Protein 1
Amino acid sequence: MQNNKAAQLKGTMKVPGDKSISHRAVMLGSIAQGKTTVSGLLTGDDCLNTIDCFRKLGVDIHRDGEFVEINGKGIDGLQEPSDILDVGNSGTTIRLLLGILSTLPFHTNVIGDESIAKRPMGRVTIPLKEMGAKIDGRDNGKFTPLSIRGGGLKGIDYVSPVASAQVKSAVLLAGLNAEGTTSVTEPESSRDHTERMLQAFGVEVVVDGLKKSIQGNQELTGTSINVPGDISSAAFFLVAGAIIPNSEIKIKNVGINPTRTGILDVLKLMGADISIHNINDQSVEPIADITIKTSNLRGVEISGDIIPRLIDEIPILALAATQAEGVTVIKDAAELKVKETNRIDTVVDELKKMGANIEATEDGMKIYGKSKLHGADVSSHGDHRIGMMLAIASCLASGETNIKNSKAITISYPGFFEQLEKLMQ
Ligand SMILES: O=C(O)C1=C[C@@H](OP(=O)(O)O)[C@@H](O)[C@H](O)C1
Ligand SMILES: C=C(OP(=O)(O)O)C(=O)O
């Protein structure tokens, strides 16, 4: 993909459905009893892989664009698949799926792409094995391909070493069909979409600070889910609006769940001209419209318990920091190393090629502001968020930027380039 400098970005837009919520809607609908309808589903590759895995498990799922109907027969309605389940590039799919498969008394093989093969699965397979699931795979079940035979689980009181919604969700989903109570305690709060959505399906989740508990043998009842716009996708246009001259962008219907809004807090702290309006917190997930205008940003420190609230937004925040006055320091973000790519390395290496003054640290990065970016030959390394960050960087850079493997962007944002082009007109 080739991109050139943009004079301005102006307009009103929507972003596709939230990826985390879309995965969960398909999964919970598949294990619920009765009909679930989902509107506004993200049709990115990751969520399509989730649908494909549950179809292979025998679930009746009809999709018409962003609308999905699932005819659930309860968790016991899932059947041993005759084919390997392939999650593609999606960490959320494999980790949450492992939680569900752990409860089912049959055999499944699960694989993903070469990025998934490098990502740690021990963080979910260790507690799931402790609950009684039989899981094997490379390095004693810590990496794909994985083979799993579930059933006969016992609840656990699990203290997770990482603030990860995928770990929390996998254990809680396994707990749905385990004997007794299952609890997960996290070091910091991670996104709580699973807890919220389980409640919408009629399951009781007990929240005691950082400890979340669930009783075994609870049945889910099908429901209607309306997926809000993905704040992680909106983040690319929020930063674009702030750093590209003469811009003003309004993004409608964005999910503003407080466990996801670290990006808004940091942009405000950096001095961005951002406003949040039309807040509607009447349903399971709160939504709002967000407007951003070209801003004079300043460098900040981003560390501590805000990190899980903006973990996927760090690549685009790093780009914002290259245009801020002063230095930005990102700490406590070692989790970036185990995403689709090592996002500390890919952000630093690719932005350096475009002239940014940025260095990697042990658990984050340091960015010196007000760099003049120039076009270069860069690569997404197959990581959708790196691809989108580079596309926004190219709108600011002088000359031409060639982004290798920009196709990866469809993992979370089909139609990204079309949207960007519309705002340039
Ligand atoms: O649960 C989810 O939907 C997600 C949780 C986060 O990962 P971790 O659970 O590994 O922190 C996030 O980075 C990922 O994009 C989606
Ligand atoms: C880390 C991400 O997703 P996943 O873990 O589902 O692959 C992401 O979307 O940035």
Protein 2
Amino acid sequence: MAELVFFTGTMDCGKSTLALQMDHTHASRGRAGLLFTQHDRSGEAVLSSRLGLTKPALEVDDDLDLWEFVVDQVTAGRRVDYLVCDEAQFYTPVQVEQLARLVDEMDVDVFAFGITSDFRTELFPGSRRLIELADRTEQLQVRALCWCGKPATVNARVVDGVMVVEGEQVVVGDVTGETGPVPTVEYEMLCRRHYMRRMNSSAARAQSLSPDVLPFDLDLCALPGTAEPSPDGRAGPPAG
Ligand SMILES: Nc1ncnc2c1ncn2[C@@H]1O[C@H](COP(=O)(O)OP(=O)(O)O)[C@@H](O)[C@H]1O
Ligand SMILES: Cc1cn([C@H]2C[C@H](O)[C@@H](COP(=O)(O)O)O2)c(=O)[nH]c1=O
């Protein structure tokens, strides 16, 4: 029986890589699939992983009717056993409902991949509908890490080096620490504690260099549960 599965995690945890692996695994057993994406970092109509793999994909515009599109393909004689849907957080709730209908009425497996929440920690509408409708929601195993070394749970937006909590929900961008020109808008994965303190890696680095910071070990002096890792310790803001 076909399934609607939502694979989710923060940015940079391997979702697109897994999407391409799922396609490869199913295709190599003779199953016929279609790849969809929206606003991939590498451009239109491509599904790309940071590990370097890319594959052509169909771009999901807001007005694309996924049910109609797949039914038309099948009517034209094409077999469709599964769909791989990347960047599914950007799909509209109606498109997610169309995916669910394809599972239930056309027996097509749907593997959807996307982040759950935006830079304000609010659910994307598409992700919310996926969580509501999916047969299973799976958290990816490889977790991105905050600069402090803890598992990251939040995707923070950084504009010109400063973390922001207001702005448009959708701004395509990449993550910090990657090679290439530094973009104006980038994303950094943080643990909740550092997100709440608006402390991304460059803010932490600036604080650790500030003459206002007293020259003693904050870990020993802070109240229980509030200590920041020592700037000299193993986990701390990366040197910039
Ligand atoms: N050179 C590399 N060697 C091994 N793993 C890498 C390399 N570059 C990136 N990665 C891994 O690739 C993953 C990000 O892949 P990607 O599928 O693009 O993520 P997502 O779609 O979730 O944003 C991360 O887990 C990262 O650790
Ligand atoms: C948090 C957040 C992210 N985005 C964009 C940035 C990227 O282009 C994608 C996520 O891609 P990934 O493959 O998971 O790395 O989403 C956004 O538009 N708004 C946000 O708040």
Protein 3
Amino acid sequence: MTVKIGLVGTGTVGGGCIDILQKHKQDFQRHLGVDVELVRVCSRNPEQAAAHNVADIFTPDYRDIVNDPKIDIVVELIGGTTVARNVVLEALAAGKNVVTANKALMATHGQEVLDTAAAAGKEVAFEASVGGGIPIIDPLKHSLIANEIGTVMGIVNGTTNYMLTRMADNGMGYEDALKEAQANGFAEADPTADVEGFDAAAKIAILASIAFNSRVTLADVYTSGISQISPVDLEAARGMGYVVKLLAIAHRTPKGIDVRVHPTMIPATHQLATVNGVYNAIYVVGDAVGETMFFGAGAGSGPAASAVMGDVLEVARHVQQGVGPLVGCTCTDQLPILPVDELQMKYYIRFTVSDKLGVLAAMAGIFAQYNVSVHSVVQHSKKESTVDVVYVTHVAKESDIKAVIEEIAGLDDVLQGPPSLIRVEE
Ligand SMILES: NC(=O)C1=CN([C@@H]2O[C@H](COP(=O)(O)OP(=O)(O)OC[C@H]3O[C@@H](n4cnc5c(N)ncnc54)[C@H](OP(=O)(O)O)[C@@H]3O)[C@@H](O)[C@H]2O)C=CC1
Ligand SMILES: N[C@@H](CC=O)C(=O)O
């Protein structure tokens, strides 16, 4: 039996999938006994299909794919949560299996998508939604299923890791680093999702849901991105023996799930500190297995298409054999999400202030007022009459840090809007 595929979205990832299908179709049959055929592709842009030599099966209307009775698997690679949601739900309703790389969709409408799939008796596979080419969803659902997972955390956004690496190692500015990441096909269509942390938040929501068997959505994840971070912070961190990474963190605690995304200072000796460029790494701790770490390219055409095509072949095998997925994603527990204000950790905070007598004393008074003890204060001359003041605190409560920042930001001599705020993990 030949399993028939319809592909919606022929951009970075979709194009990579077409390339893999063209290159390895015979190998799939020979090595795996799975015979797949791409029978229809859709995007808004026929030139993409022509560039991949599939102009003859192009349609601009995704309904030509979801309503085609001969198609077994619909691959959704357009992104976003509007048209993509329609594609996925309509495909399931029409009796197709679905493969998607869409973390925004799965982290926002995952419950609806999975319920619809269950009701239709069809499969939804989404390995490429987290970690690009890194296998992580399948290991969590299968290889590590015997564990109670306590922690899932890591670098899950290729764009920001690439940017932070270029800014730290090559002194590149924020905008130039972002342009390079976009040119490499790492960034989302709207890169705000990458730089403001929402892409990583969607990914950690998906991972936490699977790891803790409890539904976590994008809205549950405290999220702060890298747009306030400047090369000054990366340099200051380096001087203190740290590296700055955008970390996605999920811990199961006795009180509930602690889940967040934020720029984080980690010691230069930490396992995640040397994960650079577009590479991602996800650290998982289970009660039986102990520590594990999954590493690989987190974005880009080939890596993401590798994960998508892995799902396509697995689902195609199920279609051929007439079986369903071994483990779904039902999330039968309902653990509470912990409020971020109760977190306790160390903080790096940088303010730009007027170089005037009395400013530092006023700031010190505000730290003292909230009982936030400061471990070190460093001043960097910026330009005439302004100075960057960096504080590193002892362990403090998040709500107190927020109050300190709000009061200091209100001082006349504090010049920038929000300061650089980086949480410190030892
Ligand atoms: N890029 C990466 O490294 C990774 C991306 N992903 C995910 O994969 C998905 C695709 O990303 P990527 O390939 O980078 O995105 P691209 O922007 O490169 O490609 C999107 C494709 O979808 C098409 N499209 C968009 N809207 C519609 C629509 N309404 N109807 C039909 N076609 C449409 C686009 O056509 P047109 O160009 O004409 O607009 C284009 O062909 C996203 O969910 C993303 O989050 C996951 C892992 C890695
Ligand atoms: N924009 C994402 C793409 C992969 O998920 C990233 O940069 O990681």
